[in-house]
Amino acid sequence: MQDLENVEKLYRIELLNNCVKHMQEYEIEIDEILQKIVKVVAESKEDAIRLVSKKYRNEEIILTAEDFKDVNFKWWNIAFTSKKSIKQ
Q1: Which of 8, 24, 43, 50 is most buried, by the most CB atoms less than 10 A from its CB?
Q2: Which residue(s) pair with 87 in the sheet?
Q3: pTM over cut 0.70
């Protein structure tokens, strides 16, 4: 009985080793896009962009989960360093 258990353990270890040999390591990049439209009154579009940019940097405009627009995933197979992407 003990011999059978040892054989089963060795078999499971061999199976795991074979699975690990075929696995590859990946790095996954997640790009989350938040978007909000802000209305401002300004003399020009450049002034409007400056005003909104300043308010954003001063945390007067904050994007939240409600402003979620999209997400993209990019991955690299570390062994081959090839970059691929998928849009979710």
Answers
A1: 50
A2: 72
A3: no
